[in-house]
Specification:
heterodimer; A: 370 residues; alpha+beta; Rossmann fold; OB fold (Dihydrolipoamide Acetyltransferase, E2P); six-stranded mixed sheet; five-stranded antiparallel sheet; 21 strands; 34% strand; B: 265 residues; mainly alpha; MetI-like fold; 11 helices; 0% strand
């Protein structure tokens, strides 16, 4: 949300929204409140329901059950062309028979805005995406990134209180994508409208969003800021989807407030326990793990034996993949100052129990990630 | 790969030969139309404009020419409208019934013209449609519609339906979307369908021979009648006029299209 721009965005309220195609539930009771002017990202793997949610808000798909409010008014049954919502598509969807200028003027013409006022607003929208010089070109004469900027101008030129974006940068290469991410952030700040952004790229979600809703199998796993999702994942799926992670599985035992997991005869302990049952697994972030030569003394921390499987130099530090005794892999990130290791080195993986996230196991968390 | 000079020469020669073979019959007609004698012998003798004069003054020729223009124009419009609607319907139907229906609608292209002509003739006798404008228009539309269907379907195939979704998101209802987005983008297909429909009707002879009568003749019927009755070089004059007209029409169309394309690049 942007305190500087006047708040012109619409709130969105989805309550228990379901969408079924025959027996398949594309959305299964999704509830989500998006605040006016917020940048909300719907993040998830393909088929998780994020795009269906966007289509439901846009009016391209009708809901099977549930309620949907945009700007505190129900829009269930209202056709897409009467919702006044801007949409940016992954495939640009510019009209090939119209120039850039006429594309951007199209929604204004439909709203009866003509003459100098139309010209002014077209120019203003094209200025905002830095495409003013291309007004007389046809879409086929533009690069992908340029086309998407025109599409963005066309979607904001009629001042919609809500802008939906469906993987708008999915077809572009990495450098261009990173630059356009910053452009989109800037435009959101300047407009002050509500943005709903669909992506499967968790880094993109972290860069752009005020809050992120993580989708999986037609439902929302967790809603929160990027930091909340990274530091306090509510489910194993979220923990694995956002950022790198190491998952430790094994026979678990709880006593008092402590949970212990045994991995190939070695016991790791954390002073936490699962609130509501389930088989506990431990999730660790790469920067919370340390490496030491086998047998080096460091008491008072958890210790697991392993061997360096892959060593990657990143410039700002190093990333290691450590093969553990039970066949699983740990991912460790270390700073430049830390001791470096080579592939094949026998090491100990060290971490303190307080850095462990204890989560209920989810057999399908791995499957849905691929 | 660089071509050897000899290969290039041989290839060029073959191309020239094929081109001559394709154009020769047309080129034979032109000199014949200026023949001084009433004969279709080739090479012609002397020079005269009399056969052109005959075409414009003899009511048999001018009325059949106007009839053909009238029938072909109505058929072109009717077939384009119906064919476009059919193409749309098939495009937005489920795949399996659409395939069957499409094949059904294309049968007039595959069924031998004579077979079709006999069927039409039998029905027209009962319905008193022989020798009527309505009769010609209906029969020719049957033959022309598949061409429109094919041209518009090919255009719809490459038409991105997501553009309609985009138009809806920008505030356009179904009718506005069709008028401003869909129609302009399938217009090339419709226009080529229109041209094909016109041409199909204009030079249709087989069915026309069956359903004509002395009161309503189209130009191909008149040409056929003339050439079987006597060796009148007026047919050569008609052929030359048609040749020049179509060359101008198609050449002009290609020039226009080319200019538009260039304008967009």
């Amino acid at each position: 949300m942007n305190p500087r721009a006047e708040n012109r965005g619409a709130a969105i309220d989805l309550a228990k929204v379901s969408k079924a195609y025959g027996n398949f539930k594309a959305l299964d009771g999704v509830s989500l409140r998006i605040e006016p002017g917020e940048f909300m990202t719907l993040l998830g793997p393909s088929g998780s329901g994020k795009t269906t949610t966007l289509n439901v808000i846009a009016g391209f798909t009708d809901v099977t059950s549930g309620s949907l409010l945009v700007g505190e008014k129900s829009v269930v049954g209202v056709p897409a062309h009467k919702r006044n919502i801007g949409v940016v598509f992954q495939h640009y969807a510019l009209f090939p028979h119209m120039t850039v200028g006429r594309n951007v003027a199209y929604p204004l013409a439909l709203r009866g805005i003509a003459g100098a006022e139309r010209e002014r607003r077209v120019r203003q929208a094209l200025d905002m995406v830095k495409m003013a010089d291309f007004s007389h070109r046809f879409p086929s004469e533009l690069s992908g990134g340029q086309q998407q900027r025109v599409a963005l101008a066309r979607a904001i030129v009629f001042d919609p209180p809500l802008l939906l974006m469906d993987e708008p940068l999915g077809a572009l290469d990495k450098k261009l994508r990173e630059w356009l991410q910053l452009e989109i952030k800037r435009i959101h700040r300047e407009l002050g409208t509500t943005f709903v952004y669909v992506t499967h790229d968790q880094e993109e979600a972290l860069v752009l969003s005020d809050r992120i809703a993580v989708f999986n199998r037609g439902g929302i796993e967790q809603i929160g800021t990027g930091r909340e999702l990274y530091d306090e994942p509510a489910t194993l799926f979220v923990g694995k989807f956002i950022g790198d992670s190491t998952v430790l599985r094994g026979d678990a035992a709880t006593s008092g407030g402590e949970t212990a997991i045994e991995i190939s005869g070695q016991k790791v302990v954390t002073a936490r326990r699962l609130a509501n049952g389930g088989r506990p697994v431990m999730l660790l972030r790469p920067e919370k793990l340390a490496l030491a030569r086998r047998g080096a003394a460091d008491e008072g921390r958890n210790r697991l034996a392993g061997r360096i499987g892959e060593a990657i130099y990143l410039g700002s530090g190093s990333k290691y993949e450590v093969d553990l005794a039970d066949g699983s892999k740990a991912i460790v990130r270390s700073t430049l100052e830390a001791q470096s290791f080579a592939i094949g080195d026998e090491v100990d993986l060290l971490f303190s129990g307080s850095d462990v996230k204890l989560l209920a196991d989810d057999d399908q968390a791995d499957l849905t990630l691929t | 790969m660089e071509m050897k000079p000899l290969t290039r020469v041989i290839l060029g020669l073959v191309c020239v030969l094929v081109a001559v073979w394709l154009v020769a019959p047309t080129l034979v007609v032109i000199p014949m139309s200026f023949n001084e004698n009433k004969s279709l012998a080739f090479p012609p003798q002397g020079f005269s404009w009399q056969w052109y004069q005959n075409f414009f003054t003899n009511p048999d020729w001018s009325s059949s020419f106007l009839n053909s223009l009238k029938v072909a124009s109505i058929v072109a419009v009717l077939a384009t409208v119906l064919g476009t609607l059919a193409a749309f319907g098939l495009d937005r139907m489920r795949a399996r019934p659409a395939t069957v229906l499409r094949m059904l609608m294309l049968t007039p292209m595959v069924v031998p013209g004579v077979v079709l002509a006999i069927g039409i003739y039998a029905v027209y006798l009962d319905a008193h449609l022989v020798g009527t404008l309505t009769g010609f228009v209906l029969a020719h539309t049957i033959l022309a519609l598949p061409f429109v269907l094919i041209a518009v379907s090919a255009n719809l195939e490459v038409f991105d339906r997501r553009l309609e979704t985009a138009a809806a998101s920008l505030g356009a209802g179904a009718v506005t979307t069709f008028r401003t987005v869909t129609l302009p983008l399938i217009l090339p297909g419709m226009l080529s369908g229109l041209l094909f429909a016109f041409a199909t009707s204009f030079d249709e002879i087989v069915v026309s021979l069956f359903i004509t009568n002395p009161y309503l003749k189209t130009l191909p019927v008149q040409i056929f009648a003339s050439i079987t009755r006597d060796a009148d070089p007026t047919v050569a004059a008609v052929g030359t006029i048609l040749f020049c007209a179509t060359t101008l029409l198609i050449g002009g169309g290609m020039l226009l299209l080319g200019r538009e394309r260039k304008g967009r690049l």
